[in-house]
Structures are given as C-alpha cells and as structure tokens.
Specification:
nucleotide-binding, binds adenosine-5'-triphosphate, 241 residues, 7 helices, single chain, ATP-binding, alpha/beta, Rossmann fold
Length: 241
Amino acid sequence: MKDTGVTTQIRFDAVDHVIDGRTILSDVSVNLSARRIGVIGRNGSGKTTFARILAGLIAPSAGKVTIDGIDPANDRRAALSLVGILFQNPDHQIIFPTVIEEVAFGLRQQGVDDPDARAAAVLTQFGKAHWREAHVHSLSQGQKQLVCLMSILAMTPRILILDEPFAGLDIPTRMQLARYLNHYDGTLVHVSHDPRDLAGYDHLLWLERGVLQGQGGDVLDDFTKDMTRQGESDDISDLAR
Ligand SMILES: Nc1ncnc2c1ncn2[C@@H]1O[C@H](COP(=O)(O)OP(=O)(O)OP(=O)(O)O)[C@@H](O)[C@H]1O
C-alpha cells in the first residue's frame, strides 16, 4: 500500500449503542491513527455496528465519535468525503442499472463538477472504461463488488471500511479485489471474523459481545486461541446469544 504520510485520527469516546433495550456496543473508547486497522470478533459481537457508527450511518446511543474532529453522523456531507463503506453483499449497495450511473451517484451527492466525466475517468483508471454502459445485473458478484469499490474510491474518502466484502467470493476474485485495494492510500478499517483476513494489520480491535476485549498489534494470536477454546464448547445451543 502507498504511504502518503497523511494520517487520519479516529476517536470513539465511551460509545454505547442500545437497540430495543439491548446493549450492542458498550463503553467503546479508541484513539486510532494506524493505516491498516482490523476489527475482529465472533458473529454478533458488534463489528458491523461499530463500522456503521464509524461511517456515520447510525449515531451512537451515547458517547462521541470523531474522524479528524468531525462527527460523521452529524455532518453527513463531510462524511461522504471522509469515509466509505463496502458491505458483504453488493446487491444491497447498488441502486442504479448501469455502471456509469452507479459510479457517478456518489460524486453527484458530493457536488463535484461534471460527475459523469469524473466517473468515466475513474473507470479508465481501473482499466474498466469498457464497463461504462454495462448493466449491473449482468455482472458477476466479484464484478459488482468492484463497481461498489470504484464508486466509493471515486469519492476519495480518507477512510475505507470493509465489512467482510470478500465473504462468498472465490479465491481468484478475492485476490484480484485485494490488488485494487492496494492502490488505496488512505486508512483501511477491515471488519472480519477471520484472523487470516487481518494478518499483518497495524492495529487490531477485538470485540466480544459489544465490549472491546483487546487491542493492539498482537491481538490475533489471543483471539485465535480463544476462538479455538470456545469452539470446543457448545455455546451455539445458547438461545440468549
Ligand atoms: N438494527 C438492529 N436491530 C436489532 N438488533 C440488531 C440490529 N443491528 C444489530 N443487532 C444485533 O446486534 C448484535 C451485533 O450485531 P452486528 O451485526 O454489529 O455484529 P457482527 O459482529 O457484525 O456480526 P456478524 O459477524 O454476524 O455480521 C447482533 O446480535 C445483532 O442481532
């Protein structure tokens, strides 16, 4: 990954998130300036909720979130340029019939001049000028995921959040998408339950039932050991989870 020397400051101060009386995140505080951040945890540990709060898609029930001093839930227009998020299922993200319309949409939201020309330039930059008028429904899942990635990177966000975007893709497709990601020179926040996705990341956050269980550069080993230990039990039977 390129290093432009520009770092982005992510702060969560005592963040809680409660839905229907149930605590999904509890007292999460982090102060991050690493370039590649991994968020790891079991299913249902609160990773997607953390990602959506960081992206400003939802406001936390309590506490404060800032990216370089800006509250992404409060200042939605600024958030468009601050942070982009790529989800697992591109079909939940894509809203337009053709590739060019999809890539131009975010640019239009940002208020840039001539969003169609900018979108076409992005397609060319990715070697996909020939996708311009392609119908999104005719593309493979991997190709749709690349349309989502191009749409997000067109807006040049300081932070790119990946919420398990490679789940369900075959190995060659994952490798190809990962190569496109290598050109991104901002801060990557990658959410996954699989430690293999996050090997070599600068900083890890480990969430367990909505609580920050650990963080730092060497959390993956502890996480893997704990997952193996939990795998030997039978807590999948427990309906209270
Ligand atoms: N809008 C919502 N309404 C009700 N419950 C929710 C909502 N969003 C999340 N939850 C619950 O909060 C918990 C954490 O969910 P979240 O999706 O953040 O976890 P996760 O770690 O990303 O899980 P997974 O790895 O399975 O995607 C889960 O038990 C989930 O059912």
